[in-house]
Amino acid sequence: MQRMIDVSKYQPDIDYAKVKAAGIEGVIIRCGITYWGEQQMDKDPYFEQHYAGFKSVGIPVGAYYYSAADNNEVAKREAEYCKTLLAGKQFELPVYYDVENNERMGNLSKAALTQIC
User: Fold this and answer.
1) What is the pLDDT of residues 47-73, one digit of tens each?
2) Around Cβ 100, how many Cβ atoms within 10 Å?
3) CA pair distance 3, 80, nearest whole angstrom
4) What is the gyration radius of the CA atoms in the chain, in angstroms?
5) pTM value?
6) Which ranges of the chain does DSSP label H, i.e. alpha helix?
7) Which of 59, 69, 92, 95 is most buried by its number of CB atoms within 10 A?
8) 43 three-class SS
9) How many CB atoms lie within 10 A of CB 95?
10) What percent of the chain has pLDDT over 70?
11) Phi, psi (rounded to 5 degrees) for 29
């Protein structure tokens, strides 16, 4: 099993070489988020820094987008926005769609959430 971590703005001061020395074999970086209140989309402020830092020490990189979509239209806007955030980057690991926002998604049926995804 690979040792992997996920990071975002909540880990602003990462020593990338120390992470590699600790045996971490991959990282999933939050590229963006949709805030649930107004469903405003935003880039994670540390995405570029973390991407460059992990790439510089040779740790394989993937990404995730934190969703607050409660319907297909918001999900489509998130997908288009996420594509702009990832443009021009090389990923060795998957890109994930994080659908755990309880405020917007908690009452959705499995079928509705599957349709959104």
Assistant:
1) 999 999 999 999 999 999 999 999 999
2) 9
3) 30
4) 15
5) 0.92
6) 16-21, 47-56, 72-86, 102-105, 110-116
7) 69
8) strand
9) 16
10) 99
11) -105, 130
